[in-house]
Write a structure and sequence with these properties.
By secondary structure, the chain is of the alpha/beta class. The chain is 34% helix and 27% strand. The protein has a 6-stranded mixed β-sheet with strand order 6-7-8-3-9-10, sandwiched between helices. Strands 2-1-4-5 form a 4-stranded antiparallel β-sheet. The radius of gyration is 22 Å and the shape is globular. The structure holds adenosine-5'-triphosphate (ATP) and magnesium ion. The site of magnesium ion has 4 residues, from helix 1.
């Protein structure tokens, strides 16, 4: 049978609550790969994910899976989706395994498939032995791993992960991010996060969202290249810091052997600063596009 390449397309996707527009005319075409969705609190990331999973009602626009409207596909589309929401019901009294069988049931998996997938993914996330314990006794990282397994049940083509590494220690974060990489082949993975390191490591494309608008979609290396010649620094005395922080609130302070360095990102070199020799990182991209009160930016490639 001919296998059609997976596509998911947003056309003019818009969400308003009353007269407040929280997602504004989004146009994106997704192909298999990991997409990092980066934006400050309230930017509209979870709303976009809610619209994709039809847990939030759309105001306007289309969402097309393989070219077909997802609202028309209904169950057929939902069966291809795995969703790990930002706010999770906790099911503290359930053992992990019972919770996963319950989730598999909701997804309509038969017992045998459910058992096979649950054991396979529990092994993958290193929790096969702990899975007969109640979720109430799990650490934050273990819970996130179980929720990740729950999202994977049914072998979805599209995986929607809303801040899966929030609040986790570095070791747990790295684990989750490695699992995401491991399962991303031939799937469309949408990953909302504030953790730029997660995106740097695994995202092939980054979407920058601010105030409901998509500012940029590009691979990390393209965004990093845009920051070259836009990073400036100043070695300063401790007593100067306060004034600099007020004048340039989006600066980054670091300690170097030469002294305290104040680093800013922007189009022009501020007085008293010099172009930095340091490599740009995604935090610079974040600050450049998403922070401060400057107007929406757009750099044409
Ligand atoms: N039910 C609702 N009624 C009114 N406004 C809402 C509702 N749900 C969300 N919003 C608003 O929509 C905007 C986008 O929220 P959303 O949760 O999508 O942001 P986010 O990018 O996921 O933020 P975070 O990083 O904090 O998770 C916010 O301003 C929020 O207050
Ligand atoms: Mg959110």
């Amino acid at each position: 049978m001919e296998q059609k390449e997976l596509t998911l397309e947003l056309k003019g996707l818009t969400k308003r609550y009353g007269d407040k527009t929280v997602l504004n005319d989004l146009h994106v075409m997704f192909h298999p790969g990991v997409y990092g969705i980066l934006g400050p609190n309230g930017a509209g990331k979870s709303t976009m994910m809610g619209l994709l999973t039809d847990t939030v009602r759309r105001t306007d626009g289309e969402i097309l899976f393989q070219g077909e409207e997802t609202l028309k596909l209904g169950r057929q589309f939902r069966a291809r989706l795995g969703y790990m929401p930002q706010q999770q019901g906790m099911y503290d009294q359930f053992t992990a395994r019972r919770f996963l069988f319950y989730t598999a049931g909701l997804k309509g998996l038969d017992k045998k498939t459910a058992r096979r997938q649950i054991e396979e993914y529990l092994n993958m996330v290193g929790l096969a032995d702990a899975a007969s314990k109640k979720l109430g006794g799990y650490s934050g990282g273990m819970r996130q791993r179980i929720m990740f397994v729950a999202a994977l049940l049914g072998d979805p083509d599209i995986l929607i992960l809303d801040e899966p590494t929030a609040g986790l220690d570095p070791e747990e974060r790295i684990r989750i991010r490695n699992y995401i990489s491991e399962i991303s082949e031939n799937r469309i993975v949408l990953l909302a996060t504030h953790v730029v390191a997660d995106i740097e490591c695994i995202a092939e494309q980054v979407l920058l969202i601010r105030e409901g608008k998509l500012l940029q979609m590009a691979p990390p290396h393209v965004l990093l290249a845009q920051m070259e010649d836009r990073i400036f620094e100043r070695i300063c005395r401790p007593e100067e810091l306060h004034g600099l922080m007020q004048a340039y609130p989006n600066g980054n302070i670091s300690q170097r052997k030469e002294g305290v360095v104040y680093r800013v990102v922007g189009d022009d070199c501020p007085d008293g600063f010099i172009p930095s020799a340091a490599q740009p990182n995604l935090e610079d991209v974040y600050l450049y596009y998403l922070k401060g009160d400057r107007q929406t930016r757009s750099i044409q490639e």
